[in-house]
Amino acid sequence: MPTQRLVLDCSALLPGPFVGKLIARQGCRVIKIESPERPDPARVMQPSFYADLNDSKEQLTLSLVEPRDRARFEELLREADGLIEGFRPAAKRRLGLDEATLHAINPRLCI
């Protein structure tokens, strides 16, 4: 029996979370990761919309800049098959989510 695929969803609002929902419906384990400092704006704008997009995902709050949380995130990255994110290029570099950094942690990761 094949192993269930793991996808980390660090995205917000509509496009990324919707893709994560579709992937979860196909049987993947999807973990929605939100920053404690900047939660997904959809959570505040329309709670039912947020709930609908994320109802089939596990929820995890991690600060990607706090060392202990970053270590936990990197543990998950090592196991993950995919990452959904929607950060701008400068934010990706600042958070260590650029392709080179991610593939140094997990060379088989689909971004």
Structure characteristics:
alpha/beta; four-stranded parallel β-sheet; 6 helices; globular
- State the end-to-end CA separation: 25 Å
**Fraction in beta strands:** 15-25%
Structural class: alpha/beta
Overall radius of gyration: 13 Å
Query: What share of the residues lie within helices?
Result: 40-55%
- Per DSSP E runs of 2 or more residues, the count of β-strands stands at 4
Largest beta sheet: what is the strand line-up?
A: 3-2-1-4
Low-confidence stretches: none
What's the pLDDT, averaged over the residues? 95
Biggest sheet character = 4 strands, parallel
Shape: globular
Number of helices: 6
SSE pattern, N- to C-terminal: EHEHHEHEHH
Secondary structure blueprint with pairings:
Elements: E1 6-9, H1 15-25, E2 29-34, H2 41-45, H3 47-54, E3 58-61, H4 67-79, E4 82-84, H5 89-95, H6 99-105
Parallel strand pairs: 1-2, 1-4, 2-3
3D structure, described in words:
The protein has 111 residues and is α/β, with parallel strands linked by helices. The protein is built from six helices and four strands. The protein is 46% helix and 15% strand. The radius of gyration is 13 Å and the shape is globular. 21% of the residues are buried.
Provide a concise account of the structure shown.
With 111 residues, the protein is an alpha/beta fold. Helix content is 46%, strand content 15%.
